[in-house]
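Notes to self after the call with IL:
- keep both proteins in one doc
- input above output, always
- annotate only the second one for now

Protein 1:
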Amino acid sequence: MSSTLNGQLLGRTHYATRAVLERELTRLGLTFGQSLLLNMLAAADGPVPRAEAARQLTDALKLSPAAAHTTLAELVAATLVAPMTQDASRVTVTPAGRQSQRLVAAATGEIGKRLWAGLAAEDLAAAARVLDAVRRRAEASLASAA
């Protein structure tokens, strides 16, 4: 049986793979949004302004700025992220946050290996190009409607 590449297939694939990840994130005590923000902050070269952290999460998950700030506050409350002592408008990942982020990265890597195993490199490259093009078009459409 062949599948047609369309929004329904993309959505079902996203939700299925995300559900696999969320099962592991639940075990780690994190939500999907928290893990994404934790990854973003851990990848930063240093402390990040709260507004910038929220903007990045808003852009990534297409959620409201208020929801992104709530997710950041949850990470602060969990002591995975902390405001800078000298400038509370900037946040950084704590040692506990770095450990959680490493566990998330390991889980994500294992899940990815398992789900993508056996697929040809050329197929993966073509899929990446197509998905990136569709994502860019959708983001441009959202930006033009704003």
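Protein 2 (the one to annotate):
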Amino acid sequence: MNEAARVLALLAERGHTLAVAESLTGGLVAAELTGVPGASQSFRGSVTAYATPLKERLLGVDGTLLAERGAVDPEVALQMAAGVRAGLGADWGIATTGVAGPEPQDGQPVGTVYVAVSGPSDRAGGTAGAGKVAALRLNGDRAEIRRESVRSVLELLCELLADEHSENARAQDTEQNGGD
């Protein structure tokens, strides 16, 4: 089973939904997800905010952060994931931002990519952008960097969904056995 199918199966098991914010991947994450039959059960939609101003206007990324650090930044990725989750009313939000090449951007070399996940437990804290981000340093041409970014963001979400499932199973087991 590919990463997209695995993500969608895990989301469906939980009755959760997903929204996607993309920059360097330009819609490839959404295309990968919607290529899986039955994706509509969990996939809400996506925002491809390729231009930096759209990250602020459509996804709620802090304008000062964008002005100071540029769009290729871990906090920008986190805010994109949280913003798309809130904006599209999903349980989970994922995001990609980075430099696919051929030229560096915002002082970052080609292959610098940040992928992020924002999930339901982040809502309680009330802090936009809470979640998990992974910094990637990818090699290859533009197409290879974009493909690996798609795989990496889906893999990060799979890991968090699997961790959440394990934590819930342990909590239920503890409850059933009268433990603390």
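Annotation: The helical segments are 3-14, 28-34, 52-59, 63-69, 74-87, 121-125, 142-176. The domain at 3-176 is CATH 3.90.950.20 (Maf protein).
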